[in-house]
Structures are given as structure tokens and as C-alpha cells.
Design brief:
Elements: H1 19-51, H2 57-62, H3 67-84, H4 86-97, H5 103-113
Helix pairs in contact: 1-3
Length: about 120
């Protein structure tokens, strides 16, 4: 097997203020890709096992999914990636709406909403 180049040439693009966030997302997406491949392989094994009790590795390697199976797998990947990238999508939606309020401030607001408010007591002399 030929060894592939592992690093692209040129400067790496960054999408977030902190380049470490981009690195973590790249790692998560790499893992997500591996999970998607494993999902397809397990799906293949399950489909082959439904037809007969024992299967060989060569049968798995030779399996050609139908258009329906390919569509089902694509739908699964879309849902899976949506879950993996949910927090990024939420932030993008917030930016698009102009909702850039700091997270801590939002948490404080939510926490204060659940507590009873104290009324100011005015003392009379």
C-alpha cells in the first residue's frame, strides 16, 4: 500500500479565533469519518448475516450496496454528522441571527430566571 501524504502544503486555514479549536474539530471529524466507515462495515455484515449464518471476510470486501442501501447510509451519515457538529451549528445559527451574547451571561440569566425575585423593602422611620 502506498503511503499517502499526511499534511497539505501551504498554510493551514483557521476558522475559529483559537486555532486549537480547529485542531480539535479536525480530530473529531477524523474520528467521525472512521466511525462512519465502521458503521457501513457493520451494516454490510448485518445484511449478509440476514441472508445466511456464516460469512467470510471476502464476502464483506466484495459486497456492493444497492442504491437503497447507499441512500440509507448517506441519511445515517448526515444525521450522525449533524449530532457531532451540533455545537458548531448552534454557534453558526447564533452568529447569523446576531446573537453573540457571552455564554456565561446567558447562563446567569437562565439561572436567575428560576429563582424568586426579592422585592425591595422600604423602611419607614
Amino acid at each position: 500500500m502506498a503511503k499517502l501524504q499526511r499534511k497539505a502544503k501551504g498554510e493551514r486555514p483557521y476558522f475559529f479565533e483559537d486555532p486549537n479549536v480547529d485542531k480539535v474539530i479536525a480530530m473529531v471529524m477524523g474520528l467521525a469519518g472512521e466511525v462512519a466507515v465502521l458503521h457501513d462495515r457493520v451494516d454490510t455484515m448485518e445484511r449478509l448475516l440476514e441472508k445466511k449464518a456464516g460469512i467470510k471476510r471476502t464476502e464483506i470486501e466484495k459486497y456492493k450496496p444497492t442504491a437503497k442501501v447507499t441512500a440509507e447510509r448517506a441519511a445515517w451519515r448526515e444525521q450522525f454528522l449533524s449530532e457531532v457538529l451540533r455545537i458548531v451549528e448552534i454557534e453558526q445559527e447564533a452568529l447569523a441571527k446576531g446573537d453573540t451574547e457571552k455564554y456565561d451571561k446567558a447562563v446567569a440569566l437562565v439561572e436567575s430566571e428560576g429563582k424568586p425575585r426579592r422585592k425591595k423593602v422600604i423602611k419607614k422611620n
